[in-house]
Amino acid sequence: MDFLNDTAGHGEPGRLAGKRVLITGATSGIGRGCAMHMAEEGARLIFTGRNEEGAAQTLRMVSEVAPDTEIEFIRQDVTVEADWTRLYDRVREVWGAMDVLLSNAGDARLGPLESVKPEDLDFLYKVNVEGQFLGLRDGLPLMAPEGSIIVMSSRAGLRGFPHGTAYTSAKGALTALTKVVAAEAAALGTGIRVNSVHPGLVWTESVERVLQGRAEELRAKMEATVPMHKIGHPRDVGDLVCYLSSDDSRHITGAELSIDGGMAAQ
């Protein structure tokens, strides 16, 4: 299945021309889709992740849709503070500052409440909260005036659902953290804005992996849970991310933006 090359809804080219964009967790899925879309819009990219094979695929796919893109991969584990230090040292060296930080890296573990172990909570808070906290804390001073920080949360960060104890609580904490950073960034008076994005069901490689060969069988049932009767595409999230990265969103900060086909309305 083609997860990333759907061109429906493509915006005006060049609205991110020259913008210096750092994306964490872009070696697959939504992060990769956003990297491709932002490259098409003219962004200069540094992206990170732990999977070097996936990074090679992202580099290839970005070069196919935007051959002239300035792009670099840096291996990073967001839970390791030294990796953040090394990454931001490179940002200073290459760009001096960044216009957009897309804090996308995250992970998930699902299971009924009685099966959740403290180590499940520890793991998801380490990745989804502490890892993003480190990036936000040390990245805010590196943002250019009028810059945009975009935190990839989840529909789970706004409401609970069965089997989501560890994941939902971590994403809820991340959503709250984003609002605090937005308030502090606004107080700086530099025009830096901070928003969280909350995807619902988005069809990625990880969905097919979790469904273990039953993807086509279960897709119709999954679509039936979405008011618009359509599962999201990474490009849909990329459209929103590009908007938040552009100057068109200059008066939006501290917002929770759902992209879920109407699930938040239920």
Q: Summed up, what is this model?
A:
Helices cover 43% and strands 16% of the residues.
What does this 3D model show about the protein?
The chain is an alpha/beta fold. The protein has one domain (20-265): Rossmann fold (3-Layer(aba) Sandwich), CATH 3.40.50. Helix content is 43%, strand content 16%. It has eight helices and seven strands. The chain has a seven-stranded parallel β-sheet with strand order 3-2-1-4-5-6-7, with helices on both faces. Helix 4 (118-139) runs parallel beside helix 5. The longest helix is centred in the middle third of the chain and has 23 residues, at 165-187. The two termini are 29 Å apart. The model is unreliable at 7-12 (pLDDT under 50).
What brief labels describe this structure?
266 residues; alpha/beta; Rossmann fold
